[in-house]
């Protein structure tokens, strides 16, 4: 049995190449002989099918996270399945993923992967560290919150924790295999402070000098926890700030306020942890004024990095159920944030195209802002600015970039 990660790679040279943790979990649970990571190996669908031949295989339609990267991957998984006679497809949208009870009882089959193929995001190593030696791990599955645009509950209801000792044993193994940069894939690592503190205490004691990032939420962090995380090696935390309007946040069930965002940023900065801010343009009640407020907020918060998304009604989310069929993408690729064929949601006041253009321009404007680049240079050095300039040469969705304004 072969487990396959089909190729649906972000074309940017600055993006991470992440070890396919879902393939490793499924391989362990079905006692597979091998994992073919077609994404890391840069294989086309035809090349992948040639290698597999008539072997039994499971094509895993999961990306780095359930919403933004797993949904568009379903299209390539289905195309690949048409080319392989003995293939089945597993993934978020195919309702055949392992139960959470089975996931917490095993360790992914890392032995079947060559971990030297993987590399961290450019921002994760902005301080000039080597991007190779990138590992990923889960310490919990699921999330206790229910945001309308998120489809995590298709996979799990509530949140289930692994035993901290199991997590640490897995980190020991990954470090022995050369991992230096690590991502906690948990939807929300900071929900349970006892869980966080136990893992971080044990990690600090090991003194591995890891460069770690993970996801946090405003209202779930406190100064003591953040300092403990920093001691353990957390250098980056990603917050889903999403919108610069409390009303828009309420409208999609996101339980946070602008006040909480500024408090979380202050505490995180105080602990010496860098911030990645996620923002969404085009939520159902957004108009130009609220989208400008979101863009303004992303600058006011002073994040070291931002991800700008367009709102998408991912299948499995409440937003999907509430959206008229004609406003949904008619291909899986339409859910891809960085595809030329991306089709975000229209809002009550804006077309899909207006949202998309706003997002693309906001991206260029943020990363070409002189004040931002000076902050990056002060903090991480001139080479970090070089990384950002390189990223701008690639440009979001292949549209003309503002890279020239950087030179
Ligand atoms: S907090 Fe994050 S993971 Fe949880 S439901 Fe909201 S978007 Fe999804």
TrEMBL record:
One Gene Ontology cellular component annotation held by this UniProt entry: cytosol
UniProt keyword list: Iron, Iron-sulfur, Metal-binding, S-adenosyl-L-methionine
Keyword Metal-binding: yes
GO MF, any single term: metal ion binding
Domain Radical SAM core: 129-345
Record has Metal-binding as a keyword: yes
Gene3D superfamilies: tm_1862 like domain
InterPro entries recorded: BchE-like (IPR051198), Elp3/MiaA/NifB-like_rSAM (IPR006638), Methyltransferase_Class_B (IPR034466), rSAM (IPR007197), rSAM_horseshoe (IPR023404), rSAM_sf (IPR058240)
Cofactor: [4Fe-4S] cluster
Protein name: Radical SAM core domain-containing protein
Species for this entry: marine sediment metagenome
